[in-house]
Request: fold
Amino acid sequence: MYSADDFAQAPAAPHPDLVRRLHEVVGDAGLVLDAEAQAPYLTDWLGKWRGRAALVVRPRDTAQTAAVVRICHESHTPIVVQGGNTGMSGGATPDASGAQVVLSLSRMTAIRAVDPINNTLTAEAGVLLANVQRSALEADRFFPLSLGSEGSCTIGGNLATNAGGIAVLRYGNTRDLVLGIEAVLPDGRVWNGLRALRKDNTGYDLRNLFIGSEGTLGIITAAVLKLFARPLGRATAWVGAASIESLVGLLADLRASAGERLVAFEMMSHDSLALVLQHVVDTRAPLEGAHAFHALVELADTRQDGLDELLESALGAALERGLANDVALSRSEAQSLAFWKIREGISQAQVRAGKAIKHDIALPISSLADFAHRAEAALRALRPAVRIVNFGHLGDGNLHYNVLVPADTTPAALAAETALLNRVVHDLVSHMGGSISAEHGVGQLRRDEMHHYKQPLELELMLRIKQALDPNQLMNPGKLL
Reply:
């Protein structure tokens, strides 16, 4: 990780005219010039990437954001947009040139409207995900996007990366939870697409062009989000199984018996669980004995009646069919939270255990077991003692298939090992019709990898769109494309 001392040598000072013009727009509160104060904006939260910036700008509303972008457009100053800075792929970190402006949306925190009848909420890009969830609950509604970083990530960042999370199985990715957006274009013009409509077939779907674009096409400044009926009942269970094949079979059975009440189906290997128990305080194994794989299952409904019984019956049938070896049904909210603490503690445990070569992959659910067997065999052929941390959102086909390396691995050795093992894992994912980026975004982490696997025509179309909207290549250069 980095401290303010790492940024003590400031880059070349920004042009005085640029500083003056931006100051006229955002004032003292909107400019960060001091090297020490800039430090948190110049490195990602994992400490993998760091850069330098001419300055950090923090506009308070869309009008200020548009004015800042116009000035940068006129002066040919590159812009890196930043939300909560909780990304996993280096997509919000400036490069080392010191020529880029970091545009932080952290002051844009207004909930503009809540409409319980239309089931919508309009939020600015800097609103924390947890605050959106809270505002929905205050209106007796529910916003389902849920991430481990929800107390610090922002809606703008969620949209920019099309974030996933634990409820995709039922509600979809972020893209599926948005009706309309407002965006500042690279030349400073504002597109107001804040339409709260579920049917609108008037041309191209521009909204989805910006969602998932990682700030390379423009800046999302606000969004109309879908709300849902508030779940009043939940039933949670921990399952131990002999194989991923067994858990895939259990998932199919639960979908048949529980339907849309199945909101989460999280999987982790035995090694993933052991890592959490070793490195995360106040955690204990939910089941007796050893199980090769585990699942955290949750049902939710607007009524509690019958939910516990439904889950108990379904898991009882799974035990009889051999799809599960053991089951622990949550009997209290505290026990349910304890189950979720294990699942959410895997990333923290990996950081404490060493350095991880991370793979955020997606495959058809029917291919997950085959992939896991083949990937492990290929990795062990190269590194017999390799430590694999395999976990993720089994219900939507997204695995975090990570490889741990010792904490004292040098940067050069880590880079070489990453290149070697990435090729093994990503070649197999591509061969099996999967994606090398499921929910964390491409950023700079997977940019070159994406060029290796993306069809040339797809890349050409993406580049044409980029050129049409951002011909001067000023928006988040070096990321995604």
Notes: The radius of gyration is 23 Å. The mean pLDDT is 94. Residues 111-229 form a domain with the Uridine Diphospho-n-acetylenolpyruvylglucosamine Reductase; domain 3 fold (CATH 3.30.465.10). The chain has 16 helices and 19 strands.
